[in-house]
Every structure is written in C-alpha cells, then in structure tokens.
Amino acid sequence: MKPEGVTYRHFILGLLAQKPMSGYDINRYLKGLGWLIGMPSFGSLYPALHALRDDGLVTVDIVPSCDKPARKIYSISDRGRQELAAWSELPALSGTPLKAFVMRLILSGSFSRAQVLVHLEQRRARVAEHVALMEQMAAQQREAAEPGHGLALDYGLALAAAELDWLDRTLARL
Amino acid sequence: MKPEGVTYRHFILGLLAQKPMSGYDINRYLKGLGWLIGMPSFGSLYPALHALRDDGLVTVDIVPSCDKPARKIYSISDRGRQELAAWSELPALSGTPLKAFVMRLILSGSFSRAQVLVHLEQRRARVAEHVALMEQMAAQQREAAEPGHGLALDYGLALAAAELDWLDRTLARL
DNA sequence: GTGCGCATGTAAGAGGTTACATGATTAA
DNA sequence: TTAATCATGTAACCTCTTACATGCGCAC
Predict the structure, then answer these.
(1) For the whole model, what pTM was predicted?
(2) Looking at residues A128-152, what average pLDDT do you find?
C-alpha cells in the first residue's frame, strides 16, 4: 500500500465503522471537530461515499421519506473492515501531520488499544522532534529580529507543550 | 477582492516583504514552522514565485555562481506591497482557519501593530466559539459512548485552552 | 562511490473547494 | 417572505503534491 496523502477516503470509512450514517449525518457528526484541521465539504464527502460503495467497502441502505429526499445510510462491509485495519497500521507520514493525527484520534474507537497507544506515542515523538527543532531555531536567531518568525515560534512552542502534556496524561490514563 | 482559499501566493509575498530571498531560502526559513500546518514544497513554491514575478509583485535579482546554478533573489515591489496591505485587511475565513492564522502570525512583522491585534482578537473569538461548541457537544453525548469522538474533543479542548492562554498573554504583552 | 546539501525547475495527477441545481418544511 | 434545516448530488476550477530532470561539491 502506498503512503497516500491526507485523503478523506479512509477517514470516512472509519467513521462508518463506528456506526452506519448518511453523508449528512457525517457532516453533522464532524461539526466542532473541524476547527483544528478543517472538515470535508459535501463536494468531497458525497463523491468519496460513492467511491467507497463502488469499491465494495461500504453498503447502502436507502431509507425513503415521503417529503424529503431519500436518506442513504452507508454501512461498512467486511472488505471495508479489512481495508481499514490495513490502513490503521500505516504510519501517518503525510504533509500535514496534525490532520492525519486528529483523524486517527477520532477513529480510535475502531482501533485496538495497542494500536491507539502506538499512534499516540508516534505523535509524541514527532512533536518532541519539532520542539527540539523550534528551540534550536529560537536560540540561533535570538537577535535576528524577525518579529513574526519569533512570534510564530513562540506560538508553536506553546501549543506543542500543551500537546505533549495532553499526550502524556492520555497515555498514562490507558 | 475575493475571499480566496488558503494559497501560498500572499504568504510568500509577505515573506519577501520581510527580506529578499530565493525559493530555496524560503524553504529553509520555513523549516520548523511546518509541524502545525505543513509548508509548501518546491513544486508549488517555484511556480508561485514565477506567478508573482509575472504579475509584477516581485522583482528578481539573478546572482550567478561559478559552480552552482544561479540563485534568484526575489524582492517585493511597490505594487506587491499594496497587494499585501490589501490582503492583510481581509478576514481569514478559509476552510482551515489554523493555517490562515499561522501564516498571518509569521507575517506579522510586515503588518501594523493594530492589524496584528485585530488578527489575534479575531482568532481569540473564533477559538472561543469553537470551545463553546465543543463543550456543548461533550455535554450532550456524555454517555453516547463514541470513544474516539470523546478523545478528539478532549484533545481539541486542551489545545484550545492552551491557545486562548497564549493569545491572552500575547495580547497583554503588546 | 554513495548520499546529502545546494539550487532550480517542469508535468501529471490527485484531491479538494466553490458554486450550482433541486425541493419540502418550519421559524422569524 | 426570507432564511435556515433537511438531503443529495454534479461539474468546473484551482492548487498542491509527487516524481522527475539536472548538476556540482563535500563528507563518510
């Protein structure tokens, strides 16, 4: 399997593994989670659902309604579950690591406890790496006087510290 | 001017407003800032630079070198500065608010103090909104038992709290 | 002698957003 | 009557990533 950039394909598949939903349901379910990473618009949600159906990874139940358009409830299939399991083993190496991580976090209910721990530890290692990098940069250009850069580094370090803290607390709790 | 999704165009323009750089320089400059939002690859960096040049927003200085390929140092032009000023007034309404915010943060050296404060306050308001939304969702489904969703909300709230804290401290400091 | 840092660039393809189309119901 | 929620979908467009091409110098 290829590394594959941040796609909604497997993310949506994972959501359907938690419980059968329609496209509209998924959209609602994701409200409030999008502030960090942004969430798919209908223009990518519906086509993604169609693709999953065409590939046999999900099945559709059409629930007709008298007045409104028929709801289409998607459920994950056995092949879908296999694909999802394979995907969950892949390291999250994408261009926007935060996005990949948050997606896996949301899906963690479908993964084994061990798998979740691996993801959290991988993320911890990644963040720690970047903290080291940022501290190094901050030290290097103490008087380089690029004010925005300094502000951004400060912001990044603050968020990273909070994230490491959360990761440690969460790892301890499991 | 249209709202315009997250593009590197104005971001790169803003970086060149801080100091003249080559594409390779920009890439180096951005190392370490990418962990949150991801940073442009050469495949988008160089074409963006060419487009800015074609539109007369930047000028190029070719610095030949005996062995290595000639470096091309880009500098912002007056028209570029105008465009950048106009862009900085726009509210950051894109699909990935974090990305838009971090970009403006990095560029804050090119903005007026007042402008920076506006950006920080807008961000504060946004994050506070989402915190309210997340708390509401967390309260609603206390026993809904969607474990991943709960974990993601917890994560989101932790990061949001840290960000609000940073924003308040930074706003107070200016 | 293999890989990395320097330094620029192009082309194909993937993937997403925006805007549109449809249409009933309900609240301000 | 104007707007929002419910509910699905398509198509044009835009942008970015990936992979490639080139080529020197230096370190292991």
Answers:
(1) 0.91
(2) 82
